[in-house]
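Convert to structure. Protein one:
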Amino acid sequence: MKELFQDLRNISEKENSDGQAASSSYKHLVKNVQHLQSLLPEDLQSQAEDRWAEVYSEFDDEQMQDVHASPVVAHARTLESGFEEAAQKFKNSLPNSIPLDEILKVISSDDFHDITDRIQAEQGDRNELRNLAKIGLYVERLTGYISIIDGIIDGNSGILALLWGPIAFLLQLAEISGNVYDSLIGAFVEVGEILPDFQASASMLEGNNDAREITVLFFKDLLDIYREALEPFSRHNWLHLFDYLWPKHHANISRIVGHIERLARLMGTEICIEHIHQEQEFRKSALQSFKEQQRKMRRQEYHRILTFFNPGRYDKTLYHLDVLRCQETGTWLNNDHIFTQWFERSEGGAQTLWLRGIPGAGKTVLCSAIIRRFTHMQAKTAFVFITYGDNEISALSTIYSLVFQLAEGDEEAMDIVCGSGCEGSSSDLTAAGNLLCTLVKHCITPVYLVIDGLDEISKSERGRLITELLRQAEMCKELRIILSSRPESDLMHLLNNKTAMIQVHDHNMGSIKNYINERCQHIFQTHRIYPDAETEFRQILAPLADRAGGMFLYAKLVMGMVETMHDLSEMREELKILPKSLDAAYHRIIVRSVRHKDGRRAEKAHLLLGWIACSSVSITIEEAQQALAIRPSNPDQVFTPAVKLDVVDILGPIVEVVDNGIRFVHFTAKEYISSPHLGTDLIDTTKATLELAMRCIDYLCQRHHDPDLSSEERSEKVCTGQYGFHAFATKMWFELVRQYFQLTKPEDPPVELIGSIQMLWRVRGRGAESQNESEEKDKDETRGNTNNEAVFESLGAKQPALYQILCRVSWFRDWSFLFTGSVNKESHKDINDPFTISDTSRLIQQAFNDTLCRSPKGWLTSGKPGCHKNCARILDYYGERPFKCGFPQCNFWRYGFWDLRSRDEHKRSHDKPIKCDVPGCEFGFIGFSSERTRNNHLQKFHQSDPPPRSFDTNNIPSDEIQDILLDFVKSNQVEAVKEALGVFQDALQDDIFRDELMKLAASEASEAMLQLLADPADFQEGEPVSQRVTIYLKESIKARNENTLRYFLDKLRPIIRGKEGSFGRDIEDHVTGILPIPTLLLSQWFDGVKIWSDWFRRGLLVSPGPIENVVETKIRHRFDDDNTIRAAASHPTGDEQLIYLWEHSGVLSVIKSIPKWTSQTLRKVAGSGFSIPLAKWLLKNGACVNEELVRDTNASALQRAAKSTSPEAAEMMQFLLQNGADPYASMRGRHGRKQKKICEEDGAKGIQKHTGMTWDEFIKANSCEVIERDC
């Protein structure tokens, strides 16, 4: 009560003299009345409220107006309500996952400092201090701000909590991750540097009511910053998502900081109410407009990244399978306990399900049924159908296909992709897998991945893919994976005991019967079979389901043959003996096609089967039709298509048309046609390759491709269908020629092929212009040879001019933006097509653009108002997607788009508008698809001094300098480290600490940082490499830091020039230091392997004078010792990387003179690592599988493999036997002791466990003629 009366006295004394003090006293009065009322017992509180209402009602209107009209009271109430309104809006906007009650607990600077003291104490205990003092400026400015508004909000704890609580909560959350912690600290350092010194402006604010309005705007901006900072933490897996989502929110924070900077500048002027209103209006739209602009830019960035990766899409395949699938397909899974346990996520159950089965068992169709089941559940599902035609499929492309499927249609997932910088690590499978894992964790609903056809990619690639998918399952417990394949031995080794497994062909007999019944019913209806014949028809087909033996494909092929028959007697004759196997069914279909009584039809079938088998891309109906019509040596040919080609009718059920492309129904069909079973009298794929290549060349030499045609002539030819084969011929003529040379390696290429290419040069070559470019290319040392140049080497001696032409074409196709649609470091060198074909292609596309319908929506709408009359003909001649991309290397060059708008959006995505702005950098021309990739580039190659962090070296305690230096080195703050070392000059005297800094810099920083920290004594020419440098080099490799790896290699280049004498006994440590080959292989960093190989080849082995024998020996051992072999075998790409080292590092020039090196290394591979690819390479390069043994105890390669009982060793033994290994050779005994036979080794005795065969049976099944020992 005393306080209440004191408030009344203050109001009466100060009302006239000091409005602000009166306002404050008034608020204290109200507060004390409310406090008194709260102390009343519950039974009296309602009476007090009634009494208050009664007293309040006694005021007349004039008295009420006097109370509310007080300017001091009104302004105070307006300001406070502004704070309260902003506070309430902030609370309402917070996601439910952010605990508001935790935030509201921190209401003062003391509470905040208690939390930060605890955080620092815990970091100190873990020896992980993060220099929290860097946000000292922000805390200081925030304290000053609170002192200014305290009189306005009257110590409102709810408002104070929203100023102290969010940052305290953020620091506590971020404490578990150094990167998250540093990101938040950096953001608030940025805010602190912009916030004004409020205490210095106190006098200006106190005397100006209008100016005090600005405090509310600051409050709103601070809350907006907190909201953006809190947003990433609202996700259930925020720790995994933060790095991907933070860049977007940090950009928004920077935008708000820009507004705070505007307010800070305004505080330095005479503020009037108009200024406040202008800032309020600006604030309303600025941030939202910025976010919308960012969203649009991010969407464009995403589509550029999408185009960069060009991931496989399988929606059309799924739709095609939907059409093929019978209604009851896969229903048996509902009763399968293995599937049920996997699907219901039983505790302890496998996350990965392997659907395995014999070829043609219907695994793909079954997968499609399962995918539809998941999509109907609205579960997030990504799927891949790998087919034999996917020549470019790899583990990496598969993972990225899954990535982009999960991101599609989800704005935040697209942000994650854009924020990942995946474009800059496009060859890194682990990085791609981490991105996939992040997207899986981002999804709220269950995620299912389905990969069918795993066995249709190479062993090395499917090994990499499986390893990565199993890693995904380990990291993402909510993930479920289905794999589908044949039970290949390598897959069984990788997947057994790690997956749940269902043998598909053991369960689908009922489904095959249903399929046969459905096809029969369809045939009865379409062929109008008489009812009396239906019974006999079914009787003939009765054994089919049993004969199929679980193979859906077999039943499909037989039913396809039946559907082409129109006479019951023909059917009886054809099916009285069903094909014995899948191959027999293929053979019967092929013979029926290529030996048809209609000779022209048979010739078409022969050509088409060969072309489909040899082409690396599927040929479309329209392309095949025009290719068949081409008449060689007829340059004036005019095509007059009349009837659509029916390939299924001509070739039978061995092929199918999917999305207008012709392909075999199954990979086994292509395998059969390409195998020796048929003999070249039916299908010769090599001859077909030559034939198709020459058809492409003949077509390109015809009149319709003359570059001097007028635009009217070219448009007319578009409308009459003359360019139906253009896209295929332009892209594939060179590919087919190269493929033919690879297949035949001809000493004397066919005269007709040479003549065709020469004719192409005569009519489409650029002549002198191209020759000048060729001479320039020869002068340009930066242009290395392409792989294709070796393919055409046989032409070099006999047709040197032709050889040069093909090499230039290869260069153009590999590097020119005009062909690839991808800007690269060679694009600025004006690489031209030596032929006019690419120019003509652009003119043809322009003719298409001029002819195609320009309806508002960009769709071809044949026959409808506003549509060109040519639309119908264009659809007939060129297929349903005539809107093509302009870059032949892009899939959409042939695949095209349904509408103009989609094509134009796609074309924009080929551009890389985000450039490096450092003068002279080639990426100022090449550009980047994403901001993240550009930022990574700047940090790696140009950012020797990132934006400096604010700190005062004079105020750093000496006992904290080591923690601060570690922090600066990790964030690559070169200038900050330089400044700190200038003050603390003894900081690097501690060798242990310098060593710690160097390791951290090698891993996280840049060349500039290493130059600052390195000890010159570590890099003295003529001295062995120190153990420390070896460790630094390995840290660079493990972290995949290209910048620091190149630094160490450049420093090491002169060190190898020291001679044997100067190294003495240290030579082994020296060679080990400069040759960290096992570390390279274990890192799975192929780019690092390439960098190191190039350095070794260019620098290490060009030292003056020969390398001494001891050095040569040590170098050789680093390339083939057991550690290296084991490292290569430790992951699926290790053998590929080691082969790259052998081939590209120049080491063969050191060891090629060593007798039988390849044979000795083959024995090591056979006994350690068991890598089949390494063994194949060694045999190809001269290894003898039965090398004469050099020492008493040396075992042959087969005997070394037989010492192991592992399944990998069993595969190696099978490989060696198939390549001529002698199973009866014996290891020599030492000093006359009894020789040990191979059959006595543990692996040979236990071979039945892996193969189901005894050793003798195993030899009989796999042995070929033994290769003589004197290899």
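Protein two, convert as well:
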Amino acid sequence: LFLQSSDTCSQEGLEFRHRNLKFLRETENCVPLSAAMSAKDENQVVNVDEEDVVDFKEIPQERALEILRASHEGLTSAEAEERLFAYGPNKLPESSRNPLLVYLGYMWNPLAWAMEAAAIIAIALLDYVDFVLIVALLFVNATISFVEESNADRAIKALTSALAPKAKVLRDGEPVSIEAQYLVPGDIVVIRLGDIVPADVKVLNEGDGTPESETPLQCDQAALTGESLPVKKFSGDVCFSGSTIKQGERHCVVYATGMDTFFGRAAALLGETDNVANIQKIMTKIGAMCLLTIGVWVVIELGVGFGVYNHSCYGGDGYCPILTNILVIIVGGIPIAMPTVLSVTLALGAFKLAKDGAIVSRMSAVEEMAGMDILCSDKTGTLTLNKLTVDVATCDPAGKFTIEDVLKYGALSANTVTEEPIDMVLFESYSDSHLIKENYTLKKFIPFNPVDKYTVAHLVENSTGKYIQVMKGAPQVVVRACKNAKEIEEDCTKKINEYAGRGYRALGVALHEGEGTPSWNLVGLVPLFDPPRHDTANTIEKCIDMGISVKMITGDQLLIGKETAKQLGMGTNMFTTEALLKAKQGFGLVDGHISVEDLVEQADGFAEVFPEHKHMIVKILQDKGHMIGMTGDGVNDAPALKKANVGIAVADATDAARGAADIVLTEPGLYTIVGAVIGARKIFQRMTTYARYTVAMTFRVCFTFGLLTVIYDWFFPTILIVLLAVFNDGAMIALSKDKVVPSHVPNRWNLNSIFMTGIVYGLYLTLSSWVFFYLMTHMTFFEDKLGMFSLDERQASLESWCTNFIPERGYTLGTPISDIYTLTQPQLDAGYGSVTALNQCMTEQKYVRGSMSRAALYLQVSISGQALVFVVRTMAFSWISIAGMWTYIAFLGAQFCATLIAVFGFNGYTFPPNPIDDCEFCTLSSGGFNPFFAKREVPIYGTEAVYTASVIGCTYYVVAAWIWAAIWSFGLDPIKWMMHYILNEEGIRQQSFYETFFNKPPQAPQGLNARVSLRSSMSRMSMGRASVGRVSMAGAQCGGIPGHGAALNAPRSLVARASIVRVSATGPVHGK
């Protein structure tokens, strides 16, 4: 690590670097281990020096067992319990974050910074109320985010606890399966194909200890050491925690657990890397656009306010209307609730998926699953039941052998300890299977691996001592291994094809009597049948309807794959890997396809596939622009699961497959995947609903109040915009539980569409608010047509009204206000006493009417703004599309509060500075004082206070605001359809009028053309996705060590000393 640092550093830095290099090389690799652990004799110690360093790779097996106080029979339960207490659980310490720092972190982002800047401006202007409200808004959003995400995280961790890695260990002389975290040094564990090594272990001898008598393990250590190829591990070698077993099965002794393992030490040294989720990048881009819009309007307002209207600005509440109005743009334009709404929606959605059987180990995988358009599905266990049975009647014995012989030797070839499905079904199909263990002793078993595709059992008949070897495996492999292969291959191939035509999987069984190099005799062929799941055909049909093409990727024979495809209603345009490789090598047209990309994209599936082919298929499809989902359950599926956009480990998958997957299914079958896709699309729909809403509201607020200020020199109070954000944005939390219709086609983030539609919605709503404002303040529409009191602020209207009203109060138009009001001495000194009654009357009327029009406009903006959610949440007509109950409750609750505020106002708050009390001319135009303006403080003519943005209840103008918002809401749906048609959102151009208006899914055509048309209907502006680091899900992603989930790239010096352990003769030195 330090060698990678800069060459240019200070002398002190060099000394620090040298000290740490020495520490890394000499001591970092030493992990503590007690040698004084013996349940038989606590006083007995091992003859080692005080805190000796022992390299478990170099010492003999017996010496290792002696140091560890272990035996081949394993530990007793009592010994294991003592050691668990001494060494702690076999897991890395779970990273814990300070809850306070986590909470404050929700207020540390560009959007929050802008709000915090607004709070600073408010306090600088001595606007304490707005300052408190802005800060409260920040804390409310942070609190909601913290509480909701914490609850979802706890729930998901509880659900994923069942996925904790297991280990097969000898306890009290018997093999038992326990959670890997309960392993202790000295345990004897069994590791086999597909397992993730649960702790640092030393491989024990097999057979007579000679290399010829043992089968090595193939161990993939790429995640730990960077080695690209699996490493062979013989007796005496060590395997590190977190590595994957690719081949073989062996007994091993645990010599280090938890933080004392190589994995643990490397993790502690290297730390973790924080990656940025795609949703965070999307929020950043949306936030940046909002901040840019806000910034433009701030500059415009400052320029016009100070440069055109020549406003003054002094410290104190109400003395700087321009800066106060800047707060309106900042607070109203910032989507402050966006991080809360989107993160809570994602967290609650992931929790819902987990309850439905799809546990998400990487949050951004939810987005990618929503956009998945091709699902490469394994056949066995996913499309089928994975419950093999032997069709005894159609067994095909060879030569002198009988069906009974085929079943017998098939049972003898089985290793029931590992409980492999094929082994178990062969064993259980033999009627006398209960006598096998009495009559035969298993001496050696060569397990299956994906390359050789066979197993060999070495047995001795107890009664006669006769030594036999029984092979079983892929029929072609077994037949070719027989001594008379040429004679029997043709007939066997016909039989294999016959089985395949009936959907059977053939298995070959061969026998050799005696030791040494075998000369195999074919016993016969065993037909195995794995029937399709009852719901798979319907599920595949639903996938096609959702725009997802399902490709079968199977290791079975081509004919078996095609037969299964026929039964499931899938396409049978399938190929073997031979055709794939031929196309890849560029041998011209292959089965009518011009290129390998063309072949893979148009194929319905591939058979006889090896792991590297799965990886190749996924990569080719990704290069063609598809979003790929890949299912798998075995260690051979891990590379493809990692490569796919959405790696899906099916139920009962191996630890290696789970570790590579983004989503782990807890329920069997493909139907769970379809449910997860629908759930992911609903989550995506909720997130895009809010994204469209918040962008539109930013443009709407900025343009509405920016234009009113620039054109009419008219200001809006910060307190109302803060309340608008509190009620409307706060109510958006309900979107996380909204009832939505998932998209008919795969989803993609399309920020161009979001911004374009947001601008159009925002400008339309701005127009609605401007027309409403103009009718109230620059026309007599409501007065003439509806008989309401006037809010007309035009100079002529005010002058006319005051000319008639002042004489009614007993004054002349030229009466100085010093004769009407009792002015303070500073007011008299400033010359305000000479202001005429006419000018003061017009000022008071404009102030009162403006204060009431603000309340009415606030309500209209609030109603029409939040009602936009009902439009953007669906493609259908918003008035007939039913939303979620909480969405309605949130809307009605927020607008009820907004209506009360509009009706009653704030008694003239924000109060004008240096006011006149007990105003004479501040009545309603219809006569009488406003019942909600008891304070009756008004500004003096000619002062900056006349621009104070106060709020007085608008009484029955709230009815006009509701009706106006409802009328203009009818125009939003046509705008939505027009924009969606222009942008071709969700393939709207391919849908009929009925489907568009009532949100009915289109009938997807079959075959390749269906996939192409659905593909072409998707948005082209797909945002780049950045994978989030795989998180630890109660140990499911930790490579066998619960609590850690990242791949490591350990320093070479650490790798070189990985098997070295420090031991003590006096007792435990764990953690030293």
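The CA atoms of residues 54 and 1061 lie 5 Å apart. The longest strand covers residues 504-513.
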